[in-house]
Design brief:
Glucose Oxidase, domain 1; Enzyme I, Chain A, domain 2; eight-stranded mixed beta sheet; 550 residues; TIM Barrel; globular; 22 helices; alpha/beta; 3 domains
């Protein structure tokens, strides 16, 4: 008899196949006496340098999101502060190199988790650095992807970025991890590869090699030993899903109501694939990719060159540029003043402009210069805006630099509750559902244990989305969604029914979203949105909509 395990679904596909587990991480042997501390420290530094070089090679061979993730991980391994801390543990505490690197990385990991947000999501990346360094120091082979000789469902405690980036979709049918959340690197890369995945599935620890499982990302379920009828139903659903996703062109409901479909762009490494996608432009260009892992801000010329590459690639289409979203959980040495007690509630986004106004002024100048003559329809928006006055001030600064269209991110409940005043202060609004859910439910978005609260189907979140849409419509201002909610085809229909004028997601998600919108008239989308809003919780909202859709 089959049984199902639950987790957090990523994507909407299904896949069935035998389990193949990742090898467990290396274990530390008993501590040994250190006879030559300088030699031990040299071995440690050489191991970390070799790991950094290996990850850099993987990054160079990858592209898109995978290249960005691997490059960031290589920088972690090459961080001199890490090597210095581990070397000090050898000289001061007489630890051997394996135990020193394990202790140092554990301390770094604790710091990332304490910082929350972006950095907490990178803690798993450090685990992989630890494993690679230990294997080099202990002379053991690095555990890698399994190779059973046939297609399989990959099951792991958590996937390292270097492993996820090398996945072959022809061999790996689906992903199941015990840890991880909806915004972690596994989820991000699974979407980019178009693989169904269930993350944060703690019971996956019980799965063994060779067991047959049916992974249903839309249901966030992993069915063990499914019966043939269930497998056939899943295959039929998958066939229909793929057939529906063959459409092209602008986003439209079946009666012609426009809902623009845009791509999210996380870095220049993703540019080629993003520009090639069948989209109407970029709904979210995360410019912090140019600022992170640096000791000083990029100069105006460097920023201008990078922005021009993006604008030229999207000539004739819109590009919405989010100004620097840094500070607090993404601290930068040239803008932040030190640790904060509550980083998620700290100085970040537009709030950093009060501390370092030259950063915003230089960025707006670079964007304006790059936009001139590029052919792209460039718009700018500010992150972490809490007051209508902040939105008005940002719009004034953008226009002063010759950028006529300026908007604000709706990421905190205060912005949604006062959306009409925000819409009056600027030209458009864009809802970041990831942060809006985090702040609405007081739930750290990096914490898998709170995934239910962070479910974008939560009626309270949808209510804030609806309020923002009504405010925009009342003043004739467009309102879009650029958070992860826009990637869910079923939820995209609800968002359209709530009044969203655009949806922005990973390029691989757009075909299904386009198909879901094209299947229904706007009146039906509004009816389904009302059903979801009236539900007591996310699970009921999703179930009611699916039941209505049949």
């Amino acid at each position: 008899m089959s049984r199902a395990l639950s987790g957090i679904g990523v994507g909407s596909g299904t896949a069935c196949g035998p389990v193949a587990r990742m090898a467990p991480p290396p274990t530390l042997p008993a501590a040994r006496a250190v006879a030559d501390a300088p030699a031990e420290a040299r071995a440690l530094r050489e191991a970390l340098a070799a790991v950094a070089a290996e990850l850099s090679e993987h990054a160079a061979a990858a592209d898109g999101t995978a290249a960005d993730v691997l490059s960031a991980q290589a920088m972690m391994a090459a961080d001199p502060a890490l090597a210095d801390m581990a070397a000090a543990l050898i000289s001061d505490n007489a630890l051997d190199a394996p135990h020193a690197v394990d202790r140092a990385l554990a301390d770094f990991r604790s710091g990332l988790l304490a910082a929350g947000g972006y950095f907490a999501e990178r803690a798993a990346d450090l685990d992989d650095v630890r494993d690679r360094a230990l294997c080099r120091l202990l002379g053991r082979p690095r555990p890698g992807l399994p190779d059973p000789g046939h297609p399989y469902v990959l099951v792991a405690e958590e996937l390292a970025p270097a492993d996820t980036a090398r996945l072959d979709p022809a061999q790996v049918l689906a992903l199941v991890t015990e840890r991880g959340g909806p915004t972690g690197h596994t989820a991000i890369l699974a979407k980019a590869l178009g693989l169904p995945a269930v993350v944060g599935c703690t019971a996956a620890a019980t799965l063994t090699d060779g067991q047959t499982v049916l992974v249903d990302a839309a249901e966030a379920a992993v069915e063990i030993d499914p019966d043939p009828a269930a497998v056939q139903r899943a295959r039929d659903r998958e066939r229909r899903r793929r057939a529906r996703a063959q459409g092209a062109g602008p986003g439209r409901t079946s009666d012609g109501h426009p809902v623009a479909l845009l791509v999210n762009l996380g870095g220049l490494a993703e540019l080629e694939s993003a520009a090639a996608a069948d989209s109407e432009g970029v709904g979210l260009f995360r410019t912090e990719c140019l600022f992170l892992d640096r000791t000083e801000a990029p100069a105006l010329d460097e920023q201008q060159d990078s922005y021009r590459r993006v604008f030229t690639a999207f000539a004739g289409r819109r590009v919405i540029v989010r100004t620097l979203d840094a500070g607090a959980d993404k601290p930068l040495p040239f803008v932040t003043s030190g640790p904060e007690e509550n980083p998620a509630l700290g100085v970040r986004g537009l709030r950093t402009a009060a501390r370092a106004p030259e950063l915003l002024e230089t960025q707006l100048a670079a964007i304006a210069a790059a936009a001139a003559g590029s052919g792209a329809q460039v718009r700018v928006m500010a992150p972490m805006v809490s007051l209508p006055g902040e939105a008005a001030w940002f719009a004034e600064r953008a226009r002063a630099h010759g950028l006529p269209l300026a908007g604000a991110m709706v990421e905190v409940p205060a912005a949604a509750l006062r959306a009409e005043r925000f819409a009056a202060a600027c030209d458009f609004l864009s809802i970041g559902t990831n942060d809006l859910a985090q702040y609405t439910f007081a739930a750290d978005r990096a914490l898998g244990a709170l995934a239910e609260l962070l479910d974008p189907w939560q009626p309270a979140l949808l209510q804030l989305v609806a309020a923002t849409a009504r405010a925009g419509a009342a003043l004739g201002k467009p309102v879009g969604v650029c958070g992860e909610a826009a990637a869910d085809p079923e939820l995209a229909v609800i968002l359209a029914g709530l009044g969203m004028t655009s949806l922005s997601a990973a390029p691989a998600c757009l075909p299904e979203v386009r198909a879901a919108l094209a299947a229904l008239p706007m009146a039906h989308c509004r009816e389904l949105a009302a059903l979801a809003l009236d539900a007591p919780d996310a699970a009921t909202a999703r179930a009611r909509v699916r039941e209505h859709l049949g």
